[in-house]
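Late entry, 2-acetamido-2-deoxy-beta-D-glucopyranose complex.
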Amino acid sequence: MAPRLALPLLCLTLLGPGGALACPPLCKCYPRRAEVVCAEVPLTQFPSEGLPANTTLLTIQYTNISAISEHHLSAAPLLEGLHLYSNHLRSLSPDVLRGVPRLHTLDLTGNLLADLPADVFRHAPLTTLVLKNNLMEEAKAEWFPDDSSLTWLDLSGNRLAGVPAALLRKLPHLESLDLSHNRLEKIQARSLDPLIKLERLNLQRNKLVSLDPALFHHTANITNLYLTDNRLDKLPPSLFRGLGKLRVLGLEDNQLRHFPPGLLDPLSSLDEEGLDLTGNPWLCDRKVEYLWRWLQKNKGKAFLAETIRCAAPLPLAGRSLPSLSEGELNLES
Ligand SMILES: *[C@@H]1O[C@H](CO)[C@@H](O)[C@H](O)[C@H]1NC(C)=O
Ligand SMILES: *[C@@H]1O[C@H](CO)[C@@H](O)[C@H](O)[C@H]1NC(C)=O
Ligand SMILES: *[C@@H]1O[C@H](CO)[C@@H](O)[C@H](O)[C@H]1NC(C)=O
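Prediction complete; structure with ligand written out below:
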């Protein structure tokens, strides 16, 4: 086996001065997994010194490092996963990933990044990128190469007011997109069309007021869609057309009063309790008939169905919608 032949050489280069296996001060090294972890220690600089050259997985979390450069990472050219959770990173240099041509996972959660340089993700074949809980006001197409292989992108917990269509066009392999906990007011019409492999889309906790009627018409692979905690007060009748694979749909905590007839009909694959409609001010007049009948017919599909309550009209306020009779809804005529 080839690794056996290579062993003496690796030992020579990786043994520290006293013959001990090299490992950066304050870090833990797991040689068999080629993994290094520096967690909750008072590091203020990237731990270059003593970093084993065969490191493939490096975790630096809850430290005070504020910068990371191409020079730092070139000490671990075989790196595949880099987790930089909760440090003090404020910026990345444009070439930071140039020396790590195998890097597929980069997690920058919980830093102080407000912007990134153009082409920053061009050098590595990233499939998973997490930029959660930073300070970004914009996501830019120029960060990514045209042929990006990303399947997982998490931009949640930033200050994004929008996502450029040009950025999504560069990410045709995306399977999971998390834009929750931002300030999105609108998703541009057609901007999701290139994401034909998308399975999970999280738009929870934004400021969406309305959605384009054809927004999801090309994303037929979506199984999980979270629209929870926005300001949606109406949904277009054809919004869910084509979403026959959808299993989980979160619509709770919006301003929905009515559903247009037919809205939920395309959703033939919903999980038990897969649809959450709670926390909306349903108006239980005659126009609630479609939703009321859907809930009768699809018992068990709605999460905590008995807590889907009428906000109005006054005589029905606070009543559970599925428990109302035809008479109470004035449906008999
Ligand atoms: C990485 O190098 C160290 C030091 O020579 C060695 O003990 C370890 O087995 C290597 N790990 C892998 C996964 O190759
Ligand atoms: C790390 O930063 C925290 C606060 O941001 C500070 O209290 C602490 O002293 C710093 N530690 C070191 C080793 O610099
Ligand atoms: C679903 O994704 C597969 C690849 O995973 C793709 O080939 C197919 O075209 C997609 N389906 C639709 C309806 O877009």
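The chain has four helices and 14 strands. Will revisit in the morning.
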